[in-house]
Amino acid sequence: MTQGFSLAIDAMGGDNAPDIVLDGLELAAERHPEARFLLVGDEARLGGMLALRKRAAKLCSLRHAPDAIPSDMKPTAALRQGRNSSMRLAIDAVAAREAAGVVSAGNTGALMALAKIVVKALPEIDRPALAAIGPSARGDVVMLDLGANVQCDARNLVEFAIMGETFARAVLGLPAPTFGLLNVGSEELKGDERLRLAAEILRESHVGAQFHGFIEGHDITAGTVDVVVTDGFTGNVALKTGEGALKLMRDLLRQVFTSSVPARLGYLLARPALDRLREWMDPRRYNGAILLGLNGVVVKSHGGTDALGFAHAVDVAMDMVNHRFNDRIREGLARLSAAVEAEPAAAALAPVVGETPA
Amino acid sequence: MTQGFSLAIDAMGGDNAPDIVLDGLELAAERHPEARFLLVGDEARLGGMLALRKRAAKLCSLRHAPDAIPSDMKPTAALRQGRNSSMRLAIDAVAAREAAGVVSAGNTGALMALAKIVVKALPEIDRPALAAIGPSARGDVVMLDLGANVQCDARNLVEFAIMGETFARAVLGLPAPTFGLLNVGSEELKGDERLRLAAEILRESHVGAQFHGFIEGHDITAGTVDVVVTDGFTGNVALKTGEGALKLMRDLLRQVFTSSVPARLGYLLARPALDRLREWMDPRRYNGAILLGLNGVVVKSHGGTDALGFAHAVDVAMDMVNHRFNDRIREGLARLSAAVEAEPAAAALAPVVGETPA
Asked: Which positions make up the signal peptide (chains A, B) (predicted)?
């Protein structure tokens, strides 16, 4: 059955829902006039708001949800008590194959738990992973896993690499994205057995030519590769450490530029260039954490974002839907299995990949 | 036996040795007139250079070493072939208890390997750890392990915490440094069993009041704690990711301030304040990676640093020597064992700490 809707939209999730959700859809509608959105939430309220947003109104169908999941609700409670929530009904639409994906700015833990349990992982995938896009010196960089899996084995890392590579093709539009495994050194013997095994499999795979090998922490922002592959513990720490370092620098610059009258004047003179830098690093441009490896596209927008940020999250989800992201992943994993089976040197690794159901 | 020398100095290690080493000692001599340095290297060359540096000359005794370890030599080769090198003879002086510690700007891998094998770990310590000091929004922050141990168990993390806390008292001069365990969330149930067990032991220890619990990546630069405790894999990635993010920001700012005539002018006006920021974040202020948990103080200066940076590395080593750093660690570990034995709730954890030789 073909999905009737491109995306189900949780209209009630996020700090300023449903306003920024609808304003975001109005922006997104301009870029995706072919899309069809299933807007899930308080029907009476949404109907009136949608009447004021002409472009979005054309693409949206309303579905009533009497509840919303609070931002501080535990995932287990959301599972039990959230059956009539806008988030749950939007996710249900993906599970029922009414919509190809879902976008929500609501409770992250609840979205991840509901998506994993209701939408479920692709049969080829052992563990779904959380990915995001960030800035680097050479453009955008994709990193995964960012915390969905605290412990990972070689098979998980290989699957993350295939998913990340496919994601970079779909969303960054790169014809042959490069990727690397995050490690404590770039030499082949660095790291643990798990990393070395994953590297060996990837080198011999159909995307071996795009595999840069091991990379280090500084390579993330240097743009050494398009996709950084790591376990959820390391990825989560690296993401937050990088964000923390950038925040420290921003805060210190703010102090610098307000520390004296000449410094204030200097700021005013450099402002157009500083504004371009700020715009380039704008968190809204990088809004959207993506749960990869499920039977549908699942994008989490930041809860505190504005309409522009929500529209970016919709963009990412639409890119994935339009590129038939999951079909591409399944093809990639099938080619990986074939490569590993055909390559005698990789025979010893077969048990790892062999766990993949055919 | 009391050590005759405060520090053995590898005069021939680093990109600009022995010049910056001797200039660094001349600076350090001003701050540590009570110190005694064993200067190890090419005697003929060093004698003449020392004659030109009066303050350093007063504190230094020369010891001849015919060789120097090249910067690209593998640690295993350094062990076999470096027996007459300046680095090895400086380390030998620590092992022979002639000097309380060693400072070298030479080959990092060789220094770490030689120090571990020749100087050896303290009997109470399972695994030595690599620590460094960096900038945070609230002052300096210590982080360890930065890569000496890719895999760690709960006992290792607990020992790192005791060593880091002691280090922050000795080198940062804090009376009761706070510390936290790096994790993917601050809630008690986050992370793996190893982290939860380490946290439980630390909460019940004699430094439990200083234990902040779990922290996240962004807490490192936010200055949430004085000491960040983590395994060597995560610490190495976090350190390099944070450095990479700061470098990206510096590079982008350089572009901003050269992008137009007004921006250049703005830079000139804000320059005094920007220079203060640059000085505060100066990598030379944070020069020196410290291998903690050995039978002596071992400090690695950055190979490319200048005299000021080398003097800072000597400062760190002298602070550790003057505070009898290793005695403090042994006291800390003894108190930890006593606390764990006295606390009935921690009985289940005794096997972990019980591995510590009495």
From this structure: none
